Amino acid sequence: MSHIENHVVWTIVVAAGSGTRFGGAKQFAQLGAGTVVEWAVHEVGKWSDGVVVVVLPGSVLSDGQVEGGSTRSESVRNGLKAVPTEATIVCVHDAARPFVTETVFSRVVNAVVNGADGAVPGIEVADTVKVIDANGQVVSTPDRATLRAVQTPQAFRAEMLRQAHDHDLQGTDDAAIVESLGGKVVVVQGDPLLRKITSRDDLDWARMTAHKMTEGEV
Ligand code: CTP
Ligand code: MG
To answer: How confident is the model over 124-148, as pLDDT tens digits?
Structure first.
C-alpha cells in the first residue's frame, strides 16, 4: 500500500531482458532465499498499490504478469497496458536491481506528488566522463559536478508516462522518453544499494549484500 493521500501508485517491474552482458537471464539468478526478480518485486510491493511484472515471452505464470518485448521500452509499454486507469503515479523498476530502499522509493514518488512529471534516483559519478565520436576522439568533457548516474525506481505522473508510450519511442530509461516530449524530470538522491546487476561481479556483490542483510549488517 502506498498510503499517499489522493494517489494510487502502481509499479511495473521489467524482467524480460536476455542478459547478454551477463551471459544469461540474470533476473532469475539465485540471491539468498529468492531470485533477483523476486527480491525486486517483493521490495516494491511494500509501497505500491499494485505491481505488474513483465516477464520473458512464453513465461507468464500468474495474474499480474505480462509478456515483454524485444526492447526495454517495449516491455514497459506492455506492462503499462496492464496498469489500471485509476493509477495516478506509475513507477518503473528494473528487475536487475534487487535492493530497493523505502527512502528512495518515497523520494521519487513524492517528487511527482509535488509536481514533477517524472523523478529518478541519481548518484554522483566518481570518474570523469568523456563524450566521444565513432573514432573514439573526444568531443567534449562535461563538468562532472553536473552529471548523475541514474537508477530505478523511476516515478511518473501516470498520464505523462502513458502519453510518452503512446509514441513508439525508445530509450535506455523511461525518463529519457518523457524528457524528449518536454516533460519535467527531476533527479533525487539515489543509493549505491540500487546498483544494477549487469555482470557476474555485480551478482557477487548482490549475494554478499543479501547475506549481510540477513545477518543484520546492512
Ligand atoms: N528488460 C526488459 N525487456 C527487454 C530488455 C530489458 O524487461 N527487452 C529489463 C531487464 O530484464 C532488466 C532491465 O530491463 O531488468 C534493465 O535492462 P538491462 O540491465 O539492460 O538487462 P538486459 O537487457 O537483460 O541485459 P543486456 O543489456 O546485457 O542484454
Ligand atoms: Mg539491456
So the answer is: 999 999 999 999 999 999 999 999 9
Task: Give residues (CB < 6 A) around ligand 1.
Answer: 14-22, 27, 54, 68-72, 75, 94-96, 196, 198
Mutate to test the pocket of ligand 1, among 14, 43, 170, 172 (most ligand atoms within 8 A of CB): 14
**What is the Å distance from ligand 1's center to 114 Cα?**
30
Instruction: Give the global pTM.
Output: 0.96
Domain boundaries, the chain: 9-210
Q: Are 162 and 77 in contact (CB under 8 A)?
A: no
Out of 3.90.550.10, 3.40.50.300, 3.40.50.1000, 3.40.50.150, the CATH code matching 9-210 is 3.90.550.10
150-197 residue pLDDT tens: 999 999 999 999 999 988 788 888 999 999 999 999 999 999 999 999
Q: How far is the CA of 19 from the centre of ligand 1 (A)?
A: 6
**Burial per residue of 43-52, b for 16 or more beta-carbon CB atoms within 10 angstroms, e otherwise:** bbbebbbbbb
Neighbours of 217 (CB within 10 A): 8
* Crossing angle for the helix pair 200-214 and 36-45, to the nearest 10 degrees: 50
Give me the pLDDT at residue 96, please.
98
Q: How far is the CA of 60 from the centre of ligand 1 (A)?
A: 17
